[in-house]
Amino acid sequence: MDGEVSPNGAKQQKENRRKSTPLRQTPARQSLKVQQQQSEEESTLVEESVSPRLADWIKLNAKDLKIRLTDRRWAAEVVNDFRENLLKFLRSNTDQPFFQSADFLTTGSYFEKVKIHNPDEFDMMLKLQLPTRLNITMLDGGIFYRINLTRPTRTPVQAFLLENTLTLSSSQVLSEMFRLVRKFLKNYKVPDGNCRWEVNRKRPNSPAVTLSLCSPESNGEELISVDVVPSLEVQGWPSAVRNGPDVDNWLGKKIRQEIKGLPCYFVPKRPKGRNLGEDAKESWRISFSHVEKKIIMSHGNKKTCCESNATKCCRKPCLMLLKSLIEGLKQRFPKELDDLCSYHGKTAFLHTLSSRFDDSMWAPQQLPTCFVYLLGALEDHARRRVLPHFFVPECNLFAQAVFPRKALAFLVSALNEQRNEGLPLLKPPVPLPPLRPVRISEETFAEASTEKSSSPTLSATFMTVLVLAFAVVLACVLFSK
Length: 481
Known about the structure:
The protein has 481 residues and is α+β, with helices and mostly antiparallel strands. The protein contains 14 helices and nine strands.
C-alpha cells in the first residue's frame, strides 16, 4: 500500500540513515582531532617557508653533530673507571656511613644519546636512601621543598639534620659530598696516566660537585666535565606533580601510569635570590632526569619507533640541532643570554612532542620542517613569556624572577634574527678541537719542522750563507786592524 513500508524496507532505511549520519565523537576525541589538524596545518605552513637552501643547511649540520667513535670510547673508559672506583670508595668509607648505600643513576644528554659534538659533559646522580616516612613540604609552585623526617632517628642520616633533629640539610649533604670526592681523588689514578681529575670551585645554586679532567698536553684545558649530584630517592610523588606529565595522546595512559610509579628525586639546590628564608636555604629541588631519559629513549607514539627494523623518526636530531643552536647563541651572546640553558630547549621539545604526537609528523625526510617548527615553538614560548615546566605546570621557566624580561626580549630577537638569516649559529663559532689530547711523535715533529723550513720565508740554506758571509767580513775587519 502507498505510504507503508515493509519490515525489510524499514530495516534498510535505518541502515542507510546510520551510514549517512557521522559517528558522534566524545569531547576528548574531538579535542584530539582538532590538535592533530592544527599541527598538520602548521606543519604545512612551516614546510612552505623552509627553502631548499635552508633545508640542506639543516641536514648538513645534523650530520656534523654526531660524536666521533674514538672520542666516545676514550671518554666512556675514563668516566666509567672514575664512577666505579668512586662508588667502591663510598661504600667502603667508614667515616660517613650515610653514603655507603649510594648508587649511581645515569642521566643527562650523553646517556639519552642526544649529546652533541664531543662527549665532554657527564651527569651522575648519586642516589641516597632515606627512611620511608617523610614529611615533604612544598615551598613554592612545586619545584623546591623542605624535607623532614616524621620522627627523630639514630640512623646515619642524623649527621645531616638541623638542630630540630628532623629537617634534612641540603647544604650539609652537598658539603660532605665535596669532602668525600676530594678524599677519594688523593689516591685515585686515571687510566690515562697523563690526565688528572680536579674538583672545581662550588658554583652558586649548583647541586653538583663538578670535576674537570685535565692534561698537561692540553695546556691545562678541560677535556671532560663531570657533575656528581647527590640526590634523595623518594617513593611517591608530591601532590603538585602527582598527575604526571601530559603524555596521554603521545605515549599513552599506560606509559603515564608507569612513569607515575617511578620514584622521584630531590637534589640539594636552593632558589635564586639573596634574602632567602631559613627553609629556602636548606631546600631541595625536585628532579625528573630519570623520567626525561625514559621518555626520550622510548619517544614514539608507536612503541617500536626507531627500534631496529622499525619506523625511524627525526625527534632526536631535532633536539640535538636545538641544543647546538642554543650553544651557538650562548657563545655569541654570553652576557645577554646567560640565563638561557639547554633545559629551556628540552622543555619546549617535550611540549612539542605532546602536541605533535603522531610518528608520521616526525618522518626522517621532514627533519628541516620539524626543526623549524620546534624553533618556532621555543620562540613563541619566549614571546609569550610562558614556558611551563613539563612535570610541574605551575612553574614557569620564563617567569621574570628566573629569566629577566630584558634577557627574554633579547632571546626573541636573537631567535627571529637566526631564522631570517638562515640559522648561521647552528654551527658553533669556534671549531671544536679533538677531545683526546694528541701526542706529537718525534717523526711527526720532524716532518712538521721540514715543512716549516721549506716555507717561502728565509730558507735554511740562505741563512747558512748569510752567517758565513758575516763571519768572513768580521774576520777581514779584525785582520786589517
